[in-house]
Amino acid sequence: MTLSQLNRLALRQSRASWRLLEWRALAAALLIAICLSTLLAVTGAKLEKSLGQQSAALLGADLVISSSRPLPDKRAQAASTYGLQSSTVTQLSSMLSGNDKFLLGSIKAVAEPYPLRGEISTAPALGSVPEPGTVWAEKTVLQRLGLNVGDPLTLGYSTLTISAELLSTPDRGRGFGSFNPMVILNQADLAATQLIAPGARIDYRLLIAGPKTQVDQFEQSLLPQLSSAERLVSLNSEGNLQGNLQQNLNRYLRLSAVMALLLCALTILLSLRRFSHASLNRAAVLLNLGLQPGQLVQLFGLQLLQLWLVCAAAGTLIALLLDSLVASLLNSMIPGQLPDATLLHWLQGALMGLVLLTTLGLPPLLAISRVSVSQLLRQSEPASVTTGKVLMGLALLALLVWIGLYLDSPVLALALTAVLVGVSWALGLIGQWLTRRLATLLSGRLKLGRLLVLRIQQQRRWQKLQIPVMSLLLALMALLWLARGDLMERWAEQLPLDSANHFVINIQPWEKDPLAAFMQQQGVEAELYPMVRARITGKNGLANAEAFNAEQKQHNSLNRELNLTWRSQLARGNEVIEGSWPPKTDDNGNTVSVESNVAAHLGLKLGDTLSFSVGANQFEATVDSIRKVKWDSFQPNFYMVFAPAALEKLPTSYITAFYLPPENSTTANGLLEQFPTLTLIAIEQLLAQARQLIEHLVDASSLIMAMSLLAGTILVITLMTQERAQRRYENALLQALGASNRDCQQLDRLEFGLTGLVCGALAALLAELALWPIHQMALKVDPVIHPSSWLILPLLGMALFTLLGSLSRRAPRSLWTQLRAR
Amino acid sequence: MTTPDYSPVVQATGLTKWFDSHSGRLSLFSELELTIQRGESVAIIGPSGSGKSTLLSLLAGLDSPSHGDVMIAGQALAQLDDSQRAALRSQHLSFIFQAFHLLPELNALENVMLPLEIRGQQNAEATARQWLDNVGLAERHSHYPPMLSGGEQQRVAIARAFATEPTLLFADEPTGNLDQSTGDAIVEQLFTLNREYSTTLILITHDSRLAARCGRVLQLQQGQLVEQPAAGSAQADAAEEAHP
Ligand SMILES: Nc1ncnc2c1ncn2[C@@H]1O[C@H](COP(=O)(O)OP(=O)(O)OP(=O)(O)O)[C@@H](O)[C@H]1O
Ligand SMILES: [Mg+2]
Predict the structure, then answer these.
(1) Residue A120 CA to chain centroid, in angstroms?
(2) Close Cβ partners of A56 (under 8 Å, ≥ 6 residues apart)
(3) In chain B, what residues touch A737 (CB-CB under 8 Å)?
(4) Which of A458, A738, A814 sits opposite B90 (nearest CB)?
(5) What b/e readout covers A484-514, taking b as 16+ CB neighbours within 10 angstroms?
(6) d(CA B137, CA B153)
(7) Which terminal residue of chain A has fewer beta carbons within 10 Å of its beta carbon, N or C?
(8) By the CB < 8 Å criterion, does A739 face chain B?
C-alpha cells in the first residue's frame, strides 16, 4: 500500500472517527491546549519585548541621572564633553484640577530635545514637547476630570490649555507616582505653577543619549562622583519596577494556565487510550487483510497528524481573536503599546500540540501495532495495552519537562506538579469517601439506594479523577470571583470609621496658619505636622558605609530621604517603650526619639548618635527614646521626632490628615482653590486605582480560567463515558428486573448530582482555605466565611455534573439489544 | 359475582416488527396472532435470526412493536407509559437469560434481592435467602458471580426470577451457555418450580429435548408462527385443568 493510499484510508478513518466521543474529546482538548499556549506564547513575547524596549525607548534615553535635588549644570556639561546629547526633565506628583474636580497626577516638565529615545505620541500629533501655555494630558485625566482637548487645566497657580491627548510616552519615571495619570508641560511653564517648593517630592532627571561606547565611558566616569541624592538608571540597571511587574504578570499568566494544560494533557491521554482500544478490532482486521504492523502505525499516525493539522489551524486562529482581548486588558496595566509578537511565537502553540500528541500518542499507537489477528477470535481484553506502561511513564516525564521549559523553571514545575498531584490525591480520597457516605445515608430512603451505593463504588476510579479536577477548578473560579469583589471592599471596610481619608502634603510654612483657619472654618479637625526631609549620613561618628552592616544598608531609611518632625506631645498611637520623652535641644545638642522598628533594623540603642544631612546642612542627634507606633492609625507618623527648636531653621513643610464624609465635596475643592500647590491625596482614589489594576488582572486570568474550566469539563465528560457501556447495560438489566426508565435516569442523576455536590462543597472549602492566608497575611483582616460560595458552589457543581451527565448519555438503544450484546 | 378473567395471560394481535436501517427495511414478521393461557409452558423455536428474541422482547414489553398490540394480564402494553410498564414487569414478569446477566459487583444473595428491592418488598433478604436455598445454593449466598460456575450462576438467575413470584417467566435459551448435563439439571429445576408455582413459561430454545418438555411448541419461520403438533404431556393437561 502506498503512502497516498494510506493517507486516503486515514482520512476516511478520521471522518468516521468524528462520531466517536473520545475522538471529539481528543480534538477539543488538543484545540484548547494549542489555543491557550499560542495565546500565552504571544502575550508572553509581547510582555518580554516591551520589557526589552524599556531599556531605551521606555527610558527615553540611554542613561538617566535621577535626583531628588536639582542637578548641577556640570552634569550636562560633562555629558557634552563626551559628545553626548542631554535633556533635563522635572517630574512630581501634584493635583490636577479642572471642571471643579481634582485628581492626583504625575506632572512632567520637559524641554527640547525630548525624548532622546523612543517617541511621544499625541492626538492630535503636535511634535514632542508641548508649546508653552499648553499641556498634554492622558486619557485618564480627561475622563476623571470630565475634560476635553481645548479645556483649561489648573496646575498649582497656573492654568494651562490642554492641547492634545497624550497617547503614550517614554520616560515615565520611577516609583509609585509613575502610575498616576500623567500630564506633560513645557519646562518654561513650571516655575509659574509654584509647585517646586521645599518638601515636595520632585524627581529631577537628566536624560543622556549617544553612541554606546561614549555612554559607557561617561557612566564609568560618573559613578564615583554621584551624590547621595543622585542615582543612575541605565539600560542594564535592575530593580526596575515596571519590569518586575511585567515579568511577574507573565509568570502569573503562565502559572494560571498550567492547570488547563495539564487537564488537556490528561484528556488527550485518556481519550487516546480509549480510541486505541476501540481501534484494536479494526487494526486486527486490517492486519488480517495483509497490512504490515509498520503500516498500521503509519496509518494511525497519519490520522493523528490530520487531527493535529485541523486543531493547529483552528487553535491558532482562535488565539488570534483572543489575543486582542488580552492585549486590551493588559494595555491598561502597561503604559504604551504592546509590541507585536513574531511568527515563531504564533506557531509555538501548534508545535507544542504536536509534541504533546506525539509523546502521549505514541504508547497507544504502539499498542495498536502490536495487535494480533487472534484478537478477532477472542474478543477479549487485549493484553497489549499494559505494555505501554513504560512508554506512558516516559510520556508523562516529557510532559513534566515541557512544563518546566514552559514556566522557565524546572523547580517550579516540579513543585507545582507535586502540589497539584498531592492535593488532587487528597481531594480524590476525601471526595470519594464523602460521596459514598452520602450515598449510604440516602440509600435507606431510596428504592434504588443500594444500587446508588454500588454505582458509586463502581465509579470510584473515575471519581477519584473527576472530583479533584472539578473541585480544584471550581475553587479557583470562586477564588478569582471572591478576590475580585471581596478583597478590596473588605480592606476598605476594615478602615476605622472616621479615620482620616484625606492627606494633604506640601503645605508651605506661610500656608500653615491660613490653612488651619480654613479647616477650622470648615469644621474639619486637622492637626498640622511639620516635616523636614533629611538623610541619615552616619552613626556614632562613622559614615554609613562603616556604621552599618550590609543588611542594614538595604533598609529604606538609609536609602531615602526621611521625614523628620518635631513635637513635644506624644502623638496618638505612639508609645514610648524605652528612654524618656520629650526629645530635648540645648547646648549639649539635640536628642531624637526613634521608631522601634527602624531602631531594631539599624541596631540603634539609647545613647547612639545619628548624623543627618538636609541639603548642605549637617547636624547630629542622640537617641534618647524608642517609640512604638501603630502605623494603621491613619495619622501621619514619623520615624524620627525631635524637640521643636531643633529643626526650626531647616526648610520645612507641613502635612495633615483629616476625615471628610463622602457627601462633603466642597471642602476639598475649596481647599485646592485657595491653596493650589497643595497635594491632596484621597484614599478612595488610591483604592479605586488599585482596584482597577486588580480587576484587569483578574479579568485576564478569568479568560484563562474559563478555558481551564472548558478543559476540565471535557475531561469530566471523557471520564463519564469511560464506563458508559457498563452503565447502559446495567440500566437495561435493571429495567428487565422491573425498574422503570425513570428510575434509571434518577439513579444516574443522583450519582452525578452527589458527585457535583461534593465537588462544590470541597471547592468552597478550598477557596476558604486559600483565602485565609491572603486575608491574614496580605490584608491583615480577620478571615470570614463566605456563605454565598458555600451555597452557590455545591449547587453549581450539581448542575454542572447533571448537565454533563445528560450530555454524555445518549438515548438508550433498545433494552433488549443491550442485554443481547453481552 | 364475577371475578375478572385474567386468562389468557398473554395475547398478541396483529404483531408486526421491522427494523429500518441504511440498507432498507428488515421485516421480521407481520400480523402474528398469539394467545397463551395461564399456566401454559410454551417453547418458541426457529432458525437463528428468525426473530425469536425480538418476539420475546415484544411480548415482555421491553421493546415496542411496529404494529399490533400485546396484552399482558389483561392490560394493553401500548396504553401504558414507561413507569406503568415497569410496574407491570415488576409485578408479573421475570426473565432468565442465556448469559445469566448477574451483576458482578453483587453477591448471589444481593443479586436475588435486587428485583425485590426494586419492587420495594419488605422481607427482601429473607425471601432471597429462601430462594437460594430452594435452588440448592444454601452455601453460596455471599459468593460473587465470577466465583460461581455457569450452572450455579444460572441457578442464581432462576432464584432471582422466581423470587418475585411472577405470573410469566420468559427464558431466552436458558441452557445455551451450559454443557448438556448441567443444562439438564437446570431444565429440571425450571420445570419443577414452574409446576409448583403454576407460572406461565415462555422459552426460546434450540434444544429439541427442552422444547419437547413444553406444553406447546411454536415455530417461527419466515415471519410465520406455526403451532407444532404438541408432544402431549402433563403440562398441557395442567393448563386445561387451570382453565376449565
Ligand atoms: N435493534 C435492531 N436493529 C436492527 N436489527 C435488529 C435489531 N435487533 C435485532 N435485529 C435483527 O433482527 C433479526 C432477528 O434477531 P433476533 O435476535 O430476534 O433473532 P433470533 O431468532 O433470536 O436469533 P438467534 O437464534 O441467533 O438468537 C436479526 O437479523 C437481527 O440482526
Ligand atoms: Mg436470540
Answers:
(1) 28
(2) A62, A117, A118, A235
(3) 89-90, 95, 114-115, 118, 160
(4) A738
(5) bebbbebbeeeeeeeebbbbbbbbbeebbee
(6) 10
(7) C
(8) yes
**A820 contacts B53? CB cut-off 8 A:** yes
Residue located nearest, by CA, to atom 4 of ligand 1: B19
What integer is the mean pLDDT of B151-176? 91
Those residues whose C-beta lies under 8 Å from the C-beta of residue A668, and which sit 6 or more positions away, are A102, A502, A660, A680, A682
Pairwise CA distance, residues A802 & A797, whole Å: 8
Cα of B52 from ligand 1 centre, angstroms = 8
Question: From the candidates A460, A737, A818, A819, which should be mutated to test the interface with B, based on the most B CB atoms within 10 A?
Answer: A737
Q: CA of A426 to nearest chain B CA: how many angstroms apart?
A: 26
All three cell numbers of A474: 471550581
Convert the pLDDT of each residue in A505-525 to its tens digit.
778 888 889 999 998 998 888
Average pLDDT, chain A: 81
Higher pLDDT, A391 or B66: B66
Q: How far is CA A110 from the centre of its chain?
A: 33
Q: Tell me which chain B residue has its CA closest to the CA of residue A820.
A: B99
Q: Which residue, by CA, sits nearest to atom 10 of ligand 1?
A: B19
> What's the CA-to-centroid distance between A662 and ligand 1, angstroms?
81
Residue B68 CB less than 6 A away from ligand 1: no
C-beta of B57 in contact with ligand 1 (< 6 A): no
Neighbours of A563 (CB within 10 A): 20
pLDDT tens per residue across span A238-247: 444 455 555 6
Helix spans in A652-737 (H): 666-674, 683-722, 724-736
* Contact check, Cβ <8 Å, B89/A735: yes
Distances (CA, A) of A719 to A730, A753, A797, A813: 18, 15, 16, 21
DSSP letter for A132, please. T
pTM: 0.64
B199-222: pLDDT as tens digits: 999 999 988 888 988 999 999 988
- Alpha carbon separation from A580 to A567, A572, A583, A584 (Å, rounded): 14, 17, 8, 10
* Identity of the amino acid at A475: A
| Consecutive H or E run containing A589 | strand A589-595
Q: How confident is the model at residue A25 (pLDDT cuts 50, 70, 90)?
A: confident
Enumerate the residues of chain A whose CB falls inside 8 A of the CB of residue B90: 737-739
B101 and A447 within 8 Å at the Cβ level: the answer is no
Whether residue A264 contacts residue A257, with contact meaning beta carbons closer than 8 Å, is answered with no
User: What amino acid is encoded at A822 in this protein?
Assistant: R
